[in-house]
Amino acid sequence: MEPSTEYVAFxxxxxKTIYIDNLSPQVTKAVLENAINQFGNVKDVQFVPTYFxxxxxxxxxxxMESAKQAEEIICEMGDSPLxxxxxxxxxxxxxxxxxxxxxxxxxxxxxxxxxxxxPSQQNxxxxxxxxxxxxxxxxxxxxxxxxxxxxxxxxxKQQSETLKTNYKKYxxxxxxxxxxxxxxxxxxxxxxxxxx
Length: 196
What we know:
There is one protein chain. The chain is α+β, with helices and mostly antiparallel strands. It has five helices and four strands. It has helices at residues 5-15, 29-37, 67-79, 124-178, 181-189, and strands spanning 17-23, 42-48, 58-64, 92-95. It has a four-stranded antiparallel sheet with strand order 2-3-1-4. The chain is elongated, with a radius of gyration of 27 Å. It starts with a helix and ends in a 7-residue tail after the last helix. The mean pLDDT is 85.
């Protein structure tokens, strides 16, 4: 059975689309478009829900003009981190997959039938194992994301402290210049200083 023409066009769209995650909730469509436009021409941006992540992490599907541009962006963002909206976490990019699109068309006109299973049925144990495995994977993913967010929070605090320390240093230097201490020390020690 051949896929429908609508599905073939959709597959082409998927090839030109990248999945970007680890976005801050403050990132808007316009901000993301401007950030990615430096690598190529953005056709569309669509924010997608991140089911395993907490409310502090967002994701988006970004459609580019060509599949080549999408591949180049993935390589570029893999080689050097891209920060969007000044957040301490770099965003990540990967190829989009068909399953990531909620509005994807059906490949074939098939129907899925769901039904309750009786514990006496042959595949009941297998279905139960799959259900338990899915719960385990969700818990593991949630734990990993929690650890990652804790690391990012530590990095944010460290960067904030470094920024405050550097600001105090520059403020001290500016204060010494403003109250004339630098000029007195220059005269005392016979030094020549260049004003910058």
